[in-house]
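Per reviewer request, we include the raw input and output of the structure prediction for the construct analysed in the revised manuscript.
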Amino acid sequence: MQELQYQKYLCDKSRNKSSGRSVLYLWCYRTICSKSFFALKILAKICNEMFKFSGMGIETPDIGGGLRIPHLNGIYIHNNATLGENCTILQQVTIGANEHKIEYGKAPQIGNRVYIGAGAKVIGNIVIGDDVRIGANAVVTKSVPAGKTVVGYNKIIETQSERQGII
């Protein structure tokens, strides 16, 4: 496995200690993205195809190390999206492009240490800053500055007092 992908995998593994399936999936993903041996890549691609039955679809080659996925089912990440280091993505999350606009094929750029709650949808040519928290079932179609919390439909919570009791 290419050294950078291997380092990212080790970081992924340390953040997914309770979920063996997540570690296996991330190994397949990192192996496919690396310049490893042909036979190893074939094995990883076979494993990756088996994971598609659980609804997993990570197509992008640009994911930082330390990705945490506690529950594998129903996660889709567009092939043009980017994710920073140490992000957490829960089940049923969609990170995709808005196919009905002029900016066809442009997907979100997500910063470091972002938490994306279960069922959230992050769609369009937007930028999600570092340390952002996206609540469960939130729909995000606008860029979010660093350190903010998003709930509902593009509701950005600005202050700590607004955040109390929500997350």
